[in-house]
Amino acid sequence: VLLAIGRDACTRNIGLQTIGVKINEKNGKVPVNDEEQTNVPHVYAIGDILEGKLELTPVAIQAGRLLAQRLYGGSSKKCDYINVPTTVFTPLEYGSCGYPEQKAIDEYGEQNLEVYHTLFWPLEWTVPGRDNNTCYAKVICNKQDNNRVIGLHVLGPNAGEVTQGFAAAIKCGLTKELLDETIGIHPTCAEVFTTMDITKSSGQDITQKGC
Q1: Are residues 198 and 98 in the same domain?
Q2: What is the pTM of this model?
Q3: DSSP H helical segments within 73-146, as ranges?
Q4: Is position 186 annotated as part of the catalytic site?
Q5: CATH code where residue 144 lies
Q6: How many domains does the chain have?
Q7: Residue 141 is assigned to a structural domain of this protein
Q8: Which of 8, 96, 97, 196 could be a cystine partner for 167, CB 3.0 to 4.6 Å?
Q9: Helix, strand, coil % (nearest 5) of the chain?
Q10: Catalytic residue among 42, 117, 153, 186
């Protein structure tokens, strides 16, 4: 990555101060509660200008749709800003859904988590002889909640496609037991999530010799 400049929240010159809406003076972001409501009760904000939320178009669309349903359709459903699948489309893709490991530790405590991980070797890398141990997969489980999966991470080919599928399972309450009971499609990259048995806490070697 040579340059990652990000985006500015252009909120300083649209009159928010006139009606008393607070913004973060440092970055222009707008703090809201879990219903996208600002400090002024009848003013809401969605999308990239939200402080502490993901700057992703599908997230803004979902939040806007749910806000409209709450305001005018009698719904009470809120946007889930945690279990959001996303991908970095670098030459070797990275995909994730749920908590990063450090945030999971901050939220639940390291003693309450079990982290399973492995390196893996995609089948299509066999002929060109690429490194066995470049691709990586990890699931973070909450031991206090039936080993529910609260974070899933993958670095490898087609990570976006893999992550999108598992995101639905995470929304449904995926657990490590359910992953273990799922029959993998061999030989796919996604199969690795059905065969993980090494925890980070064990310190065991996760290097691979083949598919």
Answers
A1: yes
A2: 0.89
A3: 101-108
A4: yes
A5: 3.30.390.30
A6: 2
A7: yes
A8: 97
A9: 30, 20, 50
A10: 186
